[in-house]
Design brief:
This is Hydroxyproline O-arabinosyltransferase-like domain-containing protein. It is found in: Membrane. By secondary structure, this protein is of the alpha/beta class. Among the domains are: 223 residues, Spore Coat Polysaccharide Biosynthesis Protein SpsA, Chain A (Alpha-Beta Complex); 42 residues, no CATH class. Helix content is 36%, strand content 14%. It has a seven-stranded mixed β-sheet, sandwiched between helices. Strands 15-14-13-16-19-18-20 form a seven-stranded mixed β-sheet, sandwiched between helices. Helix 14 crosses helix 22, helix 16 packs antiparallel against helix 19 and helix 19 packs across helix 21. The radius of gyration is 34 Å and the shape is globular. The termini are far apart.
Length: 826
């Protein structure tokens, strides 16, 4: 009877639970891991991660895998910062001697699996990086993780999964997933993967032949992301296929997808709010954890963000930036208290960190069903951002191109465009088409600025001798099509003097085979007159377009040769260079390449979808509500007394000169808000200028430029604020290149300024000189008058007062007061 009762009770419980408990046993034990080294740099990151771990209510224990040498451990102060498993350091490889600290991550996990009892009492493992802030619980099965199917964040720059690198380092290149950052997997999968992760990391690290940026996507070209490839190749070897999400993790500065709350912030890149900014690289040696009362620089307040940004999604992104730095600072405050520091003095910022407003802003973010989609789900048509009439299929691959030459002028534009590409969320890869002569290449220093396809220069036409650098654009595209391994279905073509503000995709802007998308270039009046009739059989199909191009690869293959030939043809037609025919204000055939594009497309009857909401020139008044995706800073633009004109920087090397940058634009809070059109125009102009400077600053940091503050004599503390101090930051005039630049040497050394000696030209000198001469004359008269014994007493008195100056040092007063004293001429 008792047995029957138990069975009936079990059946009842099964009925009310719906049988869901049969799929996985409960409770599902979770353990979170992160890897660090014995450095101040990792200590403040540990404080931030640990604080957010508790704040987000992440279930299960957490372990810090601490890799230290014996020497580092003796000096280490931070053993109390987190639950810790000490791991032998592999920063210096024990066999090869290679210095590569990133290998400590897979080595630490292998060590944890072998030596920690926790590894025997867990079902799921969440692996994070130290430079992360957790915003809400990371529950693997709620994210869709299964045994054999881990969940991970998308790392699109791991281009080696698609090329020879994967073929060299895994037997299953087709299984290589571009993932990293956040990893959530079953413990059995981790046991199979970890040793392979470590060995593949060693293997890729040793393969120096394939460290190039165009193969790995590593902007340094130094094998620094070998550990990431070790993970992807190791997972491919053991047959793990990831469920990949672009929504779980976000970099500060990126705009989250509509309706999505990321549960993880990864502050691996610099980010900013107004003129305030933060970069973890600025705090590499910072002992802020042990410096009582000191926090990271105070960011703006939420109220100020609402003033400077009206766009809802951009405002969300700025609030995420604030949440990241404020959570770090809140963690530091609590850690200082735990360290025994005295209570800090009251300030408005400390009051904010303890306020209900901040507590409400940083409450744990819980996933709602279906709010986070993996690529597997999205590819089945579940993407909420999908257009109504869009086919329910996976999005096609995209590749972005831009054309440059081997000059400083194009180098700083490249830095700006590539930086904005990574911030914009543009899908796919980007390639710079670099047109250089052999002589240029021998002296060129910017090979590492972008993934690059090298193209023979046609600036000087090989047949006609005509000097026309703009023809390199169609020539380079044609060369790339004929020499590159291309797997993209759509190609996006940009100019170097552009800044991306958001993704440009064929599915959003309705590009299709036979119907490219572009932006209006209304000044191409030659499409409406005799120029088109002379240079195309289909003048009625001539579209006035340019700037941004989205074209199907099949159309581009047919079109590229015509683009080049028509450019040559229009360039040779000097009889029709006139402004009233071409619209070229210089009447010099300078826009022949643009007509080459329009006439070539007309020959194939490619009809463009012309969209005026993709591109805007800074300085133009934006249409209300339009979210422009591209800045094209081809023209001068101004905000008040500040201005920027790319032509002024044609010969200035701001890329190879450490900390060089453009003059900072005004603070958005200083703008006049009486006219909304003018305000929005100026905000866009400021954004463009600031993005260029942010890109240069990050570039200089990546080049390991020395700390700019150590290169000049520090200012004395006068107790006064710098007159250029602003709420969101401080203008550092030392780093600004003058607005009328002159060519500079490609040197990263900073020499102290040579100061001319202006002493003899100053009034002060002559006053002092006259005073000294008068004084000496007076002394001479006095000595003459008071000769004999009296003069001795006076002289003795003068020497005691040191009023004789140099003479008292040349002749001893004792000698002067004796009979044996030599005669001295004063």
């Amino acid at each position: 009877m008792a047995t029957l009762t138990v069975l009936m009770l079990a059946g009842f419980l099964f009925w009310i639970d719906g049988g869901s408990g049969l799929e996985q046993e409960a409770p599902y034990r979770i353990h979170t891991l992160f890897s660090v080294e014995c450095q101040n740099y990792f200590d403040w990151q540990t404080v931030g991660l640990m604080h957010s771990f508790k704040k987000a209510e992440q279930p299960g224990p957490i372990t810090r895998l601490l890799s230290c040498t014996d020497e580092e451990k003796r000096k280490y102060r931070g053993m109390h910062l987190a639950p810790t498993l000490e791991v032998p350091s592999m920063s210096r490889h024990p066999k090869t001697g290679d210095w590569y600290p990133a290998i400590n991550k897979p080595a630490g996990i292998v060590h944890w699996l072998k030596h920690s009892k926790d590894a025997d009492n867990v079902d799921w493992v969440v692996i994070l990086d130290a430079d992360m802030i957790i915003r809400g619980p990371i529950i693997p099965w709620e994210l869709g993780a299964e045994k054999g199917r881990p969940v991970a964040a998308y790392y699109g720059y791991l281009v080696g999964c698609d090329n020879i690198l994967a073929k060299l380092h895994t037997k299953h290149p087709e299984l290589c997933d571009k993932v990293g950052g956040l990893l959530a997997m079953h413990i059995d999968d981790l046991r199979a993967l970890a040793p392979m992760w470590l060995s593949k990391t060693e293997e890729v690290r040793e393969d120096r032949t394939h460290w190039g940026t165009n193969i790995t996507g590593d902007i340094y070209g130094a094998g620094w992301i070998s550990e990431m490839y070790g993970y992807s190749f190791g997972a491919a070897e053991v047959g793990l296929r990831h469920k990949i999400s672009e929504d779980l993790m976000i970099y500060p500065g990126y705009i989250p997808r509509k309706g999505i709350e990321p549960i993880l912030i990864h502050y691996g890149l610099p980010f900013s709010v107004g003129n305030w900014s933060f970069s973890k690289l600025d705090h590499h040696e910072d002992d802020i954890v042990y410096d009582c009362g000191r926090l990271f620089p105070e960011p703006p307040y939420p109220r100020e963000v609402r003033l400077i940004e009206s766009d809802f999604n951009k405002k969300r992104a700025l609030f995420l930036n604030l949440e990241c730095i404020n959570t770090l600072n809140e963690g530091l405050l609590l850690q200082h208290a735990a360290n025994g520091c005295s209570k800090p003095k009251w300030s408005r910022y400390l009051s904010f960190l303890k306020s209900k407003t901040f507590a409400d802003l940083t409450r744990p973010k819980f996933l709602s069903p279906g709010s986070i989609e993996t690529k597997e789900v999205a590819n089945q048509g579940g993407n909420q951002d999908q257009a109504v009439d869009e086919p329910e299929k996976s999005h096609p691959k995209i590749h972005t191109l831009f054309s440059t030459e081997c000059t400083p002028y194009f180098d700083w534009q490249t830095v700006g465009l590539v930086h904005s590409f990574h911030l914009s969320g543009q899908p796919g890869n980007i390639t710079r088409l670099l047109s250089c002569t052999d002589e240029d290449l021998k002296q060129y220093a910017g090979h590492d600025l972008a993934p690059t396809h090298y193209v023979p220069s046609m600036s000087r036409h090989p047949l006609t001798g005509d000097w026309y650098p703009a023809i390199n654009k169609p020539a380079a595209v044609l060369h790339w099509l004929n020499h590159a391994d291309i797997d993209a279905e759509f190609i996006v073509i940009l100019d170097a003097d552009m800044i991306l503000r958001g993704p440009i995709t064929p599915w959003e802007f309705k590009a299709s085979r036979g119907h490219p998308v572009s932006t209006p270039y209304d000044y191409l009046i030659g499409c409406d007159n005799e120029l088109a009739k002379l240079h195309t059989r289909h003048p009625d199909a001539c579209d006035k377009v340019g700037g941004v191009i989205i074209m199907h690869i099949d159309d581009l293959r047919k079109f590229a040769m015509l683009w080049l030939h028509k450019s040559e043809e229009v360039r040779a037609d000097k009889a029709h260079y006139a402004t009233n025919i071409t619209g070229d204000i210089y009447a010099s055939g300078w826009i022949s390449e643009m007509y080459g594009y329009s006439f070539g497309a007309a020959e194939l009857k490619l009809r463009h979808l012309i969209n005026s909401e993709i591109l805007i020139y800074p300085g133009y008044v934006p249409e209300p509500g339009v979210k422009y995706r591209v800045f094209h800073y081809g023209l001068e633009f101004k905000v008040g007394n500040w201005s920027f004109d790319k032509a002024n920087w044609r010969d200035t090397d701001v890329v190879n000169k450490c900390w060089a940058k453009f003059p900072d634009p005004p603070d958005p809070l200083t703008l006049n808000r009486s006219n909304e059109d003018i305000l929005q125009r100026d905000l866009l102009s400021i954004e463009c200028g600031k993005t260029l400077n942010d890109a240069l600053e990050l570039h200089h940091k990546k080049r390991n430029c020395p700390d700019p503050h150590s290169l000049s004599t520090s200012k004395r503390d006068t107790g006064k604020e710098d007159s250029s101090s602003r709420k969101f930051g401080r203008f550092d005039g030392r780093n600004a290149v003058r607005s009328n630049p002159v060519p500079t040497k490609n040197s990263e050394e900073t020499s102290p300024p040579v100061l001319k000696d202006r002493l003899f030209g100053s009034l002060r000198f002559w006053v002092v000189a006259l005073w000294a001469i008068s004084g000496l004359g007076f002394l001479a008269v006095m000595l003459k008058v008071f000769s004999g014994r009296k003069s001795k007493g006076i002289l003795k008195h003068l020497c005691k007062l040191n009023l004789c100056g140099r003479q008292c040092k040349l002749v001893s007063p004792c000698m002067l007061l004796t009979k044996a004293a030599p005669k001295v001429s004063w």
